[in-house]
Amino acid sequence: MKVSLFVTCLVDMFQGNVGKATVELLERLGCEIDFPTSQVCCGQPAYNSGYVVESKGSMKNMIKAFEHAEYVVTPSGSCAYMFKEYPHIFKGDPEWEQKAQCLADKTFELTDFIVNVLKIENVGARLKGKATYHTSCHMTRLLGVKDAPIRLLKNVEGLEYVELLGKERCCGFGGTFSVKMGNISGEMVDEKVRNIEETGADILVGADAGCLMNIGGRISRTGKPIRVMHIAEVLNSR
Amino acid sequence: MMAMKTSDEQFKERVEKNLNDSFMRGAISAAQARFQTRRQARVEELGNWEEWRAHGEEIRKHVLENLDAYLYELSENVEKRGGHVFFAKTKEEASDYIKNIATQKQAKKIVKSKSMVTEEINLNAELEEIGCKVVETDLAEFILQLNDHEPPSHIIVPSLHKNRRQIREIFAKAGYDKSEQPEEMALFARKTLRQEYLTADIGITGCNFAIAESGTVTLVTNEGNADLVSALPKTQIVVMGMERIVPTFEEMEVLVSLLTRSSVGQRLTSYVTLLTGPKGEYETDGPEEFHLVIVDNGRSKILGSEFQPILQCIRCAACVNVCPVYRHVGGHTYGSIYSGPIGAVLSPLLGGYEDFKELPYASSLCGACTEVCPVKIPLHQLLHLHRQKIVEQEGKAPISERLIMKAFGLGASSSPLFNVAAKVASPIMSPFARDDKITSGPGPLKAWTEVRDFPAPNKESFRHWMKQRQKGEKS
Q1: DSSP string spanning A114-181?
Q2: Contact (CB<8Å) B451/A55
Q3: What is the mean pLDDT of residues B281-306?
Q4: Cys-Cys link to B81, which of B42, B51, B232, B277 (CB 3.0-4.6 A)?
Q5: Are residues A106 and A125 in the same domain?
């Protein structure tokens, strides 16, 4: 199966390991990876800040970049959801609405793709440790991907899964919210890290680079001995 | 100073002040946990909550689409039962009408039950100005009134931010000298208030839902105070936002159930009171005169706009009770009587962007509010819509932000430009980075790095690795 990877700008620039793990994992599961090099960013940072006009250029670029794709897979629930929003954003636009719909229809978040398209729940990963999982808001509430990551995690050999208290609560990332309302966001992530610590887990797993950058940044600052991993990295551990 | 706006301080100052109020924050996180657990239980026992929500949404949408007809039907039916109806276009018109009644009746004392719309029209201050004593009878409102008219911090539980020790101190101002036991304090409030009901000239209540088919006003309370406010004084005035209508008793029942389950996690509140006009010929109690004041105050401008769904609101505060931002900053940070997600959407619409332009940004757009809303208002989308208006129409976004977004627009639209950015990011940021992390960032990163590290950009971008890898495979 040919899969076009939408790696996301955050992973591209800051978390290359997540991109690499995604490629290796999907290949191991039998996919052939295509990486359209003209992809940049889904436009969410500008769009969510209210700059709809400014964000449309990046959206059109993405629509073109993935026009040829059969499946678009991304290691981010939030960016996948943004693609799903494109048809609403271009509603009534004769040139782009239909194309936006095509892209939205063939886009999948990574764990959703593995469980619901590839129909695999055990990817044969092995990792020793006690892990808790942060449910990202956009992936859970807006995209509706809730069970897939947990099912995959529970099948990782050697990994003990513990549920996070207040797991449905936002970590405080929210894109530009984290700099625009930096102090409020800071209190939110501080509480999140305290909740993670209370689980006794030594690994925090997430499926969105933004949330992980936020939570990981706070864990790093407080010096807690908790390893932060993207779920692609966990599933690629052997 | 009340009305919508509750503070002259800058938004940033309010945030700073409230983030430092560790007591208030403890009270709110405990209350949120309580509300959420109870609500969850009451929602799950229904077994088909999503159907209930869809039904609630349908009712509210239908009413808004036909609001003119229902307003007409409502007012006809109130008048048929001997009541008076007044449509107030502005808050001034509303308070002037009520002040006129007070003057005509030579009212010295007015008792009130809880009503957000009377706060919106600044009614208490207006009535006090003409020499009336206004007594709030809802326990939480009573506490705040005793505390120098402190504004509410929550639309259902206005004194959510206060603990019993603080309440005892406030009660001491009114001569209370007993313990901080809730029962003892409640008894004090009860005794004090009972005397007020008996000697009041006018009773003013809000209105949860007005039923068009009969001209009936529905009041949802737990303390029973609204019953006394409406039964004892000779004149009753009901103040309602113009959208708070249901067609018949049937829809009222659905919405009351959605309201009480969502707000405080009760199947029903202790009292659901239905009032229709003044005392009838064969009735023993009730007011001799009944007035219904229907307040527009900006609502008809929302009607028909992209923001219309916000008028579906039934003021349950479920969105406030799950909001992770409200959780940390509390209600007073919003600077409006309406706080939390509902307040962040509604306040700029009713009160203007000038005073409330920061509120739509006081959200991570996590969507918890939208998920919990019993009438399916897309709250986080409306917050986003505000941001779009602020940027595109109001021109209220900072210039530096505009420039960054313009640059983003260019950079993210073309991969060659992004490639350059990705290549230079690492060397540009390297003076700030240590051990692959940035602990004290420049510009917009400063706020981030106050509390958390920022990752240094990869020395090799993913796309570069991928390119090399693909080359390697080919060769």
Answers
A1: IIIIS--S----EEEEEEEE---HIIIIIS---HHHHHHHHTSEEEEEEPPTTTTS--S-TTTHHHHT
A2: no
A3: 95
A4: B277
A5: no
Residues A88 and A155 in one domain: no
Please state the rounded mean pLDDT for residues A122-143: 97
B288 Cα to chain A: minimum distance (Å): 51
Average pLDDT over residues B377-391: 97
Total number of domains in chain A: 2
Q: Which helix (H) or strand (E) holds B463?
A: helix B462-474
Q: What residue ranges of chain B are covered by domains with CATH 3.40.50.10420?
A: 11-301
- Lookup: tokens for B431: 């003076």
Cβ-defined contact of A213 to B454 (cutoff 8 Å): yes
Residue A32, domain CATH: 3.40.50
Instruction: Give how far A165 is from chain B: nearest CA, Å.
Output: 11
- Same structural domain for residues A65 and A159? no
Residue B475 pLDDT > 50, yes or no? Answer: no
Domain containing A208 equals 121-235
CATH for the B11-301 domain, from 3.30.70.100, 3.40.630.10, 3.30.360.10, 3.40.50.10420: 3.40.50.10420
Tell me the C-alpha distance between A135 and A170, whole Å.
9
CB contact under 8 A, B397 and A50: yes
To which residue do tokens 């991109």 refer?
A19
Decide if pLDDT at B425 tops 90.
no
Better pLDDT: B291 or B419? B291
What are the angstrom distances between the C-alpha of B41 and each of B34, B254, B319, B323?
Answer: 11, 18, 17, 19
Q: Could you tell me the CA-to-CA distances from A9 to A39, B403, B415 in Å, in that order?
A: 9, 20, 11
Of A72, A92, A116, the one marking the end of a domain is A116
Residues A138 and A163 in one domain: yes
Q: Are A183 and A157 in contact (CB under 8 A)?
A: no
- Do residues A133 and A177 share a domain? yes
> Looking at the predicted structure, is the pLDDT value of residue A220 above 70?
yes
Query: Using CB atoms and an 8 Å cut-off, which of residues 141-200 of chain A contact chain B?
Result: 141-142, 168-170, 172-175, 177-191
Q: Which of A116, A147, A179 is the last residue of a domain?
A: A116
Per-residue pLDDT band at B474 (split at 50, 70, 90): low
A168·B461 Cβ contact <8 A: no
> Can you list the alpha helix ranges (DSSP code H) found in chain A?
9-14, 16-28, 44-48, 52-65, 77-89, 97-105, 110-112, 137, 147-154, 177-180, 182-199, 209-222, 231-235
Q: What is the pLDDT of residues B212-270, one digit of tens each?
A: 999 999 999 999 999 999 999 999 999 999 999 999 999 999 999 999 999 999 999 99
Distance CA B338, CA B349 (A): 11
- Provide ipTM, 2 decimals: 0.95
- pLDDT of B442 higher than 90: no
